[in-house]
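User: Could you check the structure of this?
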Amino acid sequence: MRPRHRVSRNAIDLIERFEGYRRKAAALPDGRWTIGYGHTLTAREGAEVSEEDAEALLIYDLIAVAHAVNEHVFAPLNQNQFDALCSFAFNLGLDSFRQSQVLKRLNEGETLQAACAMELWRKAEFQGQRIVIDALVRRRAAEKALFLTPPDGVWIPAPSPLLRPLVDIDARDLIPSERPTGLVTSLEGEQVLVSRDGGPAAVPPPVEDETPGETVRAAAEAVAARLQTIFPEPGSEFGEEPVEVRPQADFAAPITTSAEGDEEPVSPEAEAASEALVIGSYPEEGPEAPQDPALDLAAPEPANDARLVSPPEPQVRMVIDDTSVHEFIPARVAPLPRKREPGLGVDLALALLGLAFFGFGLFWGLNARGAPVTDLASPLVVAWAAGIAGVGFFVVAVFRLLERLAKVSERD
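Assistant: Sure, the predicted structure tokens are below.
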């Protein structure tokens, strides 16, 4: 059974130095309250505590921390190592301690690597940034020193003439690239304020109380303004005024507009000219010509100076009846060029060639029947080769003739 350690005075003093004493309860940014040496479980608004009672609250909080260290560390520990781990776990929180490399290295039996892993926990969130904190660097160094201190006070000698230290390049990442930030926390007042060393206190900005309707309305106005810049109204580009679209019935009774925007009467000559323009835009013949000039979408608006301009060319309209049946005219596809096949004479010549080879082989074989077969060039071998070649030529010619007759019968 593993021995269970208890927190000693060294751990209590170390935690009290870095936590700081708060006599009155102070509000944390997350809504909780803290008092004494970092006690939050029973802290409430308006509470006060003396130093003796604050230390008692700290010892009460360390009961759960010591229990967690005893339960999750399986390697043998001395008192100094246990005290350093309790201070380390109290600062991190028990959940972070269970997931840390310090606990993993300890359970693997790597004590010195576990001590070095303590220095990795030196950053904190401040004003929306994760930065290296000067106080955390100092606290990790103190906990590491306590962790490596022998309980009997006997240090392992490392004489300089024999063991001259060299630079460990693998540990260069432990040096922060930027200077650690010094922060100061207020110990008085009802709200905990954190500020840079020598700078103003950082107070969380107040959240404005906006109703959901105002928020939605503001978002809608922002989207509408953005769309207005992307899709401007017709005629608004290049500083032009929007064009007024008149109803088509106004073309039958044209009205001129002055520069000030007041309507002016139209002379009879201008009205007659406008009617001539409207009527002249349609063909006089054809059943498709509309009878009402007010329905003409192509009728031009008369000029402001009421002077007649030369009439445009008559526009011929084409009426398309969607209900009628249209004849489908397939697209003409150019036929692929046909390969020219050899004629009938080639097949007849091939048949005659086969008969000639077969006759030559038969004649040569009958005359050389008594000759001995000594090599491949003997008369009997030549006769057999000529006969087989003749049969092959004749068979190919007959096959081509039959294929030609089949194609002719399919065409008929």
